[in-house]
């Protein structure tokens, strides 16, 4: 199914710009849904696929848009816009997180749900892709209010989700607490026990060991594989991490503790802290837990802006915050040799082009942060079997999936002389989704 380049034969790495007439891509795209569609389009240049089928691969099957009306603590009524996008179910039930953030938009949720489809395909787990979000700044609401808002969302989601239909999970500003509320609401309304309706739960509610660490762990594993592939050692490599939540802080900790890399800078929405002699990732996390921010950490020699962090002269850069962290202009200033995308969509397509030209090796989000959904899959398997694994087994299985996926991308990247690793990831993933769709046929 994989064809040669768009004109004839396999496109050469050095000829990549020929695809984009007049460097059209240099007109910056920051709508994540447009970025997703461009990424799929880039891969489709190597795949025999009809335009009509391609349209299907680039657009969600359905999007639920709703308004949640919830009584607030002061007796007033709050109304919150919420979305759930079910992008593609050819390979299995829709799967993907739920984000609470004031910047959530319909297009962002659509993009994130599409990235889930191709992420699940890259690591070859039997899911399609979905994503949800509520437009809210959770810091402005009490725990009781957040519980009512989450349960109201679960009521809206109930007809669309289920362990064989659509399985939500945590994302930015949601975690075990929100997952437990959604599971409880669903099970109460359905009068059943169905822990596999949602993943990322607390262990006592049917969660999996290793799930909390999984996204950071796959970030660490893919960084290790990338350095090895490039013939460089990661021990002692300097690292900057943008975003110090679940993905970023755990990636930093594991890069240091398991691979001996040196974390020199980390940031969150408050700003960045830097020490060329190295930061202690656990101590920075403890400081953030205590004060709510990485800023002010006493082991730092300097405070930086986020932009300064992204352009530090380090060996490895890990964007682990939100989309569009690096655009085409900033990409020209990046000094890292390797970027591992713990966040979803941190590079715009223009940034990708610049970094490809500059020979910066980028491990794309749909592989780098796929540990989260891979261990969610293990959680779902354990829920269905009512048989729970040790953390050691979870981590071993995760490593096997991630390393095999990385090796599969290397094979595709080299065989077809693709311009970059992201295109290799999409060629592999789109091809798998397409095969499933073709094997399934169409009805009516
Ligand atoms: P989180 O809420 O735990 O952490 C997000 C972090 O980013 C926070 O420290 C926040 O302060 C920081 N941040 C926000 N805006 C910033 C900015 N402009 N500059 C610097 N820092 C900023 O969220 P998370 O779960 O760690 O998710 C982070 C990214 O990883 C998202 O793109 C998410 O989609 C992706 N991801 C997460 C998982 C998971 O299992 N948690 C799985 C796959 C992908």
Question: How would you describe what is shown here?
Answer:
With 444 residues, the protein is an alpha/beta fold. It is 44% helix and 16% strand. The chain is built from 15 helices and twelve strands. The strands form two sheets. Strands 9-8-7-6-10-11-12 form a seven-stranded mixed β-sheet, sandwiched between helices. Strands 1-2-4-3-5 form a five-stranded mixed β-sheet. Strand 10 (316-319), helix 10 and strand 11 form a beta-alpha-beta unit.
Which features would summarize this protein structure in a list?
444 residues; alpha/beta; seven-stranded mixed beta sheet; 15 helices; binds nicotinamide-adenine-dinucleotide
Present as ligands are: nicotinamide-adenine-dinucleotide
Helix proportion of residues, in percent?
40-55%
Strand content: 15-25%
H and E string? HHEEEHEHEHHEHEEHEHEHEHEHHHH
Strand line-up across the major sheet: 9-8-7-6-10-11-12
- The SS-based structural class is alpha/beta
Low-confidence regions: 1-27
Note the total helix count.
15
Radius of gyration: 21 Å
Q: Kindly, what is the distance between the CA atoms of the first and last residues, rounded to a whole number of angstroms?
A: 25 Å
- Annotation, overall tally of beta strands: 12
Largest sheet: 7 strands, mixed
Shape: globular
Task: Please state the average pLDDT score.
Answer: 93
């Amino acid at each position: 199914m994989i064809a040669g380049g768009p004109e004839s034969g396999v496109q050469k790495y050095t000829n990549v710009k020929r695809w984009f007439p007049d460097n059209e891509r240099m007109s910056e795209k920051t709508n994540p849904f447009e970025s997703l569609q461009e990424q799929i389009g880039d891969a489709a240049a190597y795949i025999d696929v009809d335009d009509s089928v391609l349209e299907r691969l680039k657009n969600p099957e359905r999007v639920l848009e709703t308004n949640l009306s919830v009584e607030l603590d002061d007796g007033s009524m709050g109304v919150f816009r919420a979305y759930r996008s079910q992008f593609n179910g050819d390979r299995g039930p829709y799967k993907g997180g739920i984000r609470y953030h004031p910047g959530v938009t319909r297009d962002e949720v659509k993009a994130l749900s599409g990235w889930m489809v191709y992420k699940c395909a890259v690591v070859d787990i039997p899911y399609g892709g979905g994503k949800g979000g509520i437009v809210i700044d959770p810091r402005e609401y009490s725990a009781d209010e957040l519980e009512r808002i989450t349960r109201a969302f679960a009521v809206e989601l109930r007809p669309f989700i289920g362990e064989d239909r659509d399985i939500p999970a945590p994302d930015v500003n949601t975690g075990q607490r929100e997952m437990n509320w959604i599971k409880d609401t669903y099970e109460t309304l359905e009068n059943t026990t169905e822990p596999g309706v949602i993943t990322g739960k607390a262990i006592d509610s049917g969660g999996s060991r290793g799930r909390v660490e999984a996204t950071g762990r796959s970030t660490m594993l893919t960084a290790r594989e990338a350095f090895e592939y490039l013939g460089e050692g990661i021990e002692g490599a300097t690292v900057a991490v943008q975003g110090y939540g679940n993905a970023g802080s755990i990636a930093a900790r594991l890069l240091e503790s398991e691979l001996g890399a040196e974390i020199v800078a980390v940031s969150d929405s408050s700003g960045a802290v830097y020490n060329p002699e190295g930061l202690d990732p656990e101590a920075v996390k403890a400081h953030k837990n205590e004060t709510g921010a990485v800023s002010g950490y006493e082991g730092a020699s300097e405070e930086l802006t986020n932009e300064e962090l992204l352009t530090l002269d380090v060996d490895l850069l890990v964007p682990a915050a939100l989309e569009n962290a690096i655009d085409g202009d900033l990409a020209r200033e990046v000094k890292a040799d390797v970027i591992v995308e713990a966040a979803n969509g941190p590079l715009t397509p223009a940034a990708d082009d610049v970094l490809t030209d500059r020979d910066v090796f980028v491990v794309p989000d749909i592989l780098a942060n796929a540990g989260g959904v891979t261990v969610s899959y293990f959680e779902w398997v354990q829920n269905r079997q009512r048989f729970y694994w040790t953390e050691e087994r979870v981590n071993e299985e995760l490593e096997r999936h991630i390393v095999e996926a990385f090796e599969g991308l290397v094979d595709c990247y080299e065989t077809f002389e693709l311009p970059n690793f992201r295109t290799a990831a999409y060629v592999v993933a789109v091809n798998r989704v397409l095969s499933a769709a073709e094997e399934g046929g169409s009805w009516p």
